[in-house]
């Protein structure tokens, strides 16, 4: 898998203010970005889990913890699928 690095600048004292290491902040940012892009339906759950650096199961658990539905199906989608199967 190819990796693209994106740099984000923060004030020098932000890690101290957050009481976090650089790696902890990077991890939180990646997870937050993955959740946001998934919620906006910009990425599939698989691609979002890749961005987060977590396994799909771990990412689904994070989504659940944040009250984000794992499926984007609407009731109409489910009814359409049922009708197609009949």
Please explain how this structure is put together.
This protein is mainly α. The protein has one domain. It contains five helices and no strands. Helix 2 packs antiparallel against helix 3 (45-52) and helix 3 crosses helix 4. The mean pLDDT is 92.
Distance between the termini: 41 Å
* SSE string: HHHHH
Rg value: 17 Å
Instruction: Output the structural class.
Output: mainly alpha
How many domains is the backbone divided into? 1
**Largest β-sheet summary:** none
Mean pLDDT: 92
Beta-strand segment tally: 0
- What is the number of helical segments per DSSP (H or I, 4+ residues)? 5
Q: State which percent range the strand residues make up.
A: under 5%
Principal-axis shape: elongated
Helix content: 55-70%
Topology:
Elements: H1 14-18, H2 22-39, H3 45-52, H4 56-65, H5 75-85
Helix pairs in contact: 2-3, 3-4
Jot down its keywords:
86 residues, mainly alpha, 60% helix, 0% strand
Please give a quick description of this structure.
Helices cover 60% and strands 0% of the residues. With 86 residues, it is mostly helical.
